[in-house]
Specification:
Layout lengths: L23 E5 L4 E3 L4 E6 L11 E4 L2 E2 L6 E4 L3 E6 L9 E6 L3 E5 L3 E2 L4 E7 L5 E8 L2 E2 L8 E4 L8 E10 L2 E6 L3 E2 L2 E2 L6 E4 L10 E6 L11 E7 L2 E2 L9 E4 L8 E9 L5 E3 L3 E3 L10 E5 L4 E3 L4 E6 L7 E7 L7 E5 L3 E6 L8 E8 L5 E2 L3 E6 L6 E5 L10 E7 L7 E7 L2 E8 L4 E7 L6 E8 L5 E2 L3 E3 L9 E6 L9 E7 L7 E7 L2 E8 L5 E6 L6 E8 L5 E2 L3 E3 L13 H28 L14 H4 L22 E3 L15 H11 L8 H20 L13 H22 L1
Parallel strand pairs: 2-8, 10-18, 28-35
Antiparallel strand pairs: 1-3, 3-6, 4-5, 4-7, 7-8, 9-11, 11-14, 12-13, 12-15, 15-16, 15-17, 19-20, 20-23, 21-22, 21-24, 24-25, 24-26, 27-29, 29-32, 30-31, 30-33, 33-34, 33-35, 36-37, 37-40, 38-39, 38-41, 41-42, 41-43, 44-45, 44-52, 45-48, 46-47, 46-49, 49-50, 49-51
Helix pairs in contact: 1-3, 1-4, 3-5
Length: 734
């Protein structure tokens, strides 16, 4: 009698005993795809197809739902599962709610080898026609203009199906295409596993081989048949309804590769188990043991490892081999007359971590040691610090996530976070990967950040990463700066706008009565300014706006009142201006004649050079007197401009030089300011006043006849100002 030994290497068994059968999840209506807005009922039942007793637990995308009824209605897509008190978790069923106009539906459930019905449905199915069905982009035969078709003997091959159809849209036919459908084909039965009655058979002892599988609880009536093989030879009588094969005695020539097949009696579905090597030995070695140095199997990357395989007993030449989980080939093999052998692994790497065992064989089949786990601890690599923020440019108030991660390193890893070398906090990654630290940003959080990682084998520091926190602008303050307390025509007005908070650059806009005056950009503190040479039209409300790309802020309105006559009069035509200029020239000539006559009457008379005989001390102009001509672009003040913030009011306007009449009148009457120090000039001033009045009678304003009807009202106002300004000025001077 020969003895046989069964050894199943790297083929773990599937424990079926003690496991509750899976629950069954059904759909009503039985289609896995529905239109968005429709409802689908889910029903959870036990293996006997009866409704669940007690509470039913429902899951969507592996998350527990609150409902506990055995039947629920859903409107959201997802992968649904259920379980009951007497059953385990059901297989996942994906239910889709499509917003499209055309969908392709498949009946559920569908198992391997089933014939499945596909249905092409439109939202308005009455207006849907010429339906065509496709598989993997190719039209299925005999599938034209059918409401539904049957696909025979489907399998789990991930084929994709879709359909097309025409829909009526008024007088047009529009082609609609459904989304691809992957039919959810469930396993009819599990892949078989070959099991042996003993892991250490002896020559001559019996052996029982079992081909284990499990039918779906929804198809318990399907009939299966089994067949077992050694290498390419069929064992027993071939196909049998029994999954077991009894071998009376195992012999050395029975060593080989064993496997089994399971198929339905209709031959529609067939599955094969993995191969298991069975070896028979005559006098086996026993108590194979694996030992690892350093003791305990705890190594640091770069160290050397020794694997020591030994047996308690065995005869003859023993072949030792070393194996690592997940590798098909052995790590090494030695044959020697010894009960112990060593394998040296130099400079271990991270990939060397895992479970190891060794095997010893002295005749036929190896005997395995128990598994021993080797841990290779990896020092952390330089971590990488990244920022995660809700926008590309961080703003005050944003929640910033600092994420630090070392791509290599054994867990647990402790991460520390720094801002300008000041510790912010730490976070641990127990299972490896990275860790994060959150900050609610303020302006003070700008600067350099870094992190370090430490798993006890030496800390590593990241490179510094700079962060700039952008601050939105605050509400700006508009300040008006003028050379005097009351603004007059011709003054140079500075509009200054400034936000006390906000990241640069800041763009400032200036407005007069909601009309844009201009803009100016500030790349540092202090705000920005805009200058105006004032006319009476510049009276009104002013405001400004500040914007640095994070939202504009508008200032409060500041009111300005400019008094005096406008330098830009639209009512005067070129002919009127020319006549008035001639009047001024005649007036100046008359003044010169009077001055000459008086000089001849006085003893001093005129000097030889034609200049006045008055001494400088008699008629010297005060140093504080203003010039007779004001350039609006070149203000004459020498003191700092006075700021005005709350609606200043101005009066006593000095006319500028753009109007020749008022400029000249002001220039002539301005000499009245010095007449008190010069009696001769005072007398001349009075005589000029009389001459001016006479001259005005002979040169009336002739501009009104040339004005357009649109400007006539303005020109009459100009004539009134022309008549009144000299009298007002003379009256104020006297």
């Amino acid at each position: 009698m020969h003895l046989w030994l069964l050894l199943l290497i790297l083929t773990p068994g599937r424990e079926q005993s003690g496991v509750a059968p899976k629950a069954v999840l059904l759909l009503d209506p039985p289609w896995s795809t529905a239109f968005k807005g429709e409802k689908v009922a889910l029903i959870c039942s036990s293996i006997s197809h009866s409704l669940a007793q007690g509470d039913t637990y429902w899951y969507r995308d592996e998350k527990l739902l609150k409902v506990k009824h055995d039947k629920i209605q859903i409107t959201k897509p997802g992968n649904y599962q259920c379980k009951t008190r007497g059953s385990s978790l059901s297989d996942a069923v994906h239910v889709e709610f499509s917003p499209d106009w055309l969908i392709l539906q498949a009946l559920h459930p569908v198992f391997e080898g089933d014939n499945v019905i596909l249905r092409c449905q439109g939202k308005d199915n009455k207006n849907t026609h010429q339906k065509v069905y496709y598989k993997d982009g190719k039209q299925l035969p005999n599938s034209y203009n059918l409401d539904k078709i049957t696909v025979n003997s489907v399998s789990r091959d991930n084929s994709k199906y879709h359909c097309t159809a025409y829909r009526k849209f008024y007088i047009l036919d529009i082609v609609e295409t459904s989304k691809p459908l992957n039919i959810q084909v469930q396993e009819l039965f599990l892949h078989p596993v070959l099991r042996a009655s003993s892991s250490t058979p002896i020559e001559g002892s019996p052996m029982t081989l079992t081909c284990e599988t499990q039918l779906s609880p929804q198809r318990p009536d399907v009939q299966l048949q089994f067949s077992l093989f050694r290498d390419s030879q069929t064992l027993g009588l071939g196909w049998s309804r029994s999954p077991r094969l009894q071998i009376p005695a195992m012999w050395t020539e029975d060593s080989g590769s064993y496997w089994c097949e399971v198929e339905t009696v209709t031959h529609s579905i067939k599955k094969r188990s993995l191969r298991s090597q069975i070896r028979v030995q005559r006098v086996p070695v026993s108590n194979v043991n694996l030992e690892i140095r350093p003791t305990g199997g705890q190594l640091i990357e770069g160290e050397n490892m020794v694997l020591i395989c030994s047996v308690a007993q065995g005869s003859g030449t023993v072949t030792f081999s070393w194996h690592k989980e997940g590798r098909v080939r052995s790590l090494g093999r030695k044959t020697q007359r010894s009960l112990l052998a060593e394998l040296h692994v130099l400079t271990v790497k991270e990939s060397d971590a895992g479970r190891y065992y060794c095997a010893a064989d002295n005749v036929h089949s190896p005997i395995l040691s128990t598994w021993i786990r080797v841990t290779v601890r990896i020092p952390v690599s330089h971590p990488v610090l990244t920022f995660r923020a809700p926008r590309a440019h961080t703003v005050v108030g944003d929640l910033l996530e600092l994420h630090c991660e070392s791509l290599r390193g054994s867990p647990p890893i402790l991460y520390r976070f720094y801002h300008e070398d000041v510790t912010l906090g730490n976070s641990s990654a127990p299972s490896g990967g990275g860790a994060s630290f959150n900050l609610s940003l303020t302006a003070e959080h700008s600067g350099n950040y870094s992190c370090d990682a430490d798993n006890g084998l030496g800390a590593q520091h990241s490179h510094g990463v700079s962060l700039r926190v952008t601050v939105p602008v605050s509400r700006p303050v508009l300040t008006l700066r003028a050379p005097r307390a009351q603004a007059v025509v011709g003054d140079l007005l500075e509009l200054h706008c400034e936000s006390l908070r906000g990241s640069f650059p800041i763009l400032y806009w200036f407005y007069h009565e909601d009309d844009t005056l201009g803009n100016s950009s500030a790349h540092s503190g202090g705000g920005a300014s805009f200058n105006l040479s004032l006319t009476t039209e510049h009276s009104g409300n002013y405001s400004c706006e500040a914007d640095n790309g994070l939202g504009a802020q508008h200032s409060k309105v500041v009111t300005l009142n400019v008094t005096g006559t406008s330098r830009n009069r639209t009512g005067l035509t070129a002919a009127g201006i020319t006549g008035l200029v001639l009047s001024i020239l005649v007036l100046a000539a008359a003044a010169a004649l009077l001055h000459y006559a008086r000089a001849r009457r006085k003893p001093g008379g005129l000097s030889a050079t034609g200049t006045s005989s008055h001494s400088p001390s008699e008629c010297q102009e005060p140093s504080s007197s203003r010039p007779s001509r004001i350039d609006p672009q070149e203000p004459t003040h020498s003191k700092p401009l006075a700021p005005m913030e709350l609606e200043p009011m101005y009066s006593n306007v000095n006319p500028g030089d753009s109007n020749p009449i008022y400029s000249q009148i002001w220039s002539i009457w301005h000499t009245k300011e010095n007449s008190a120090n010069c009696p001769m000039m005072h007398q001349e001033h009075e005589e000029l006043t009389v001459l001016y009045s006479e001259l005005k009678k002979t040169h009336p304003d002739d501009s009104a006849g040339e004005a357009t009807s649109r400007d006539r009202a303005h020109e009459e106002d100009d004539e009134e100002n022309y008549e009144n300004v000299p009298r007002v000025l003379l009256a104020s001077d006297h």
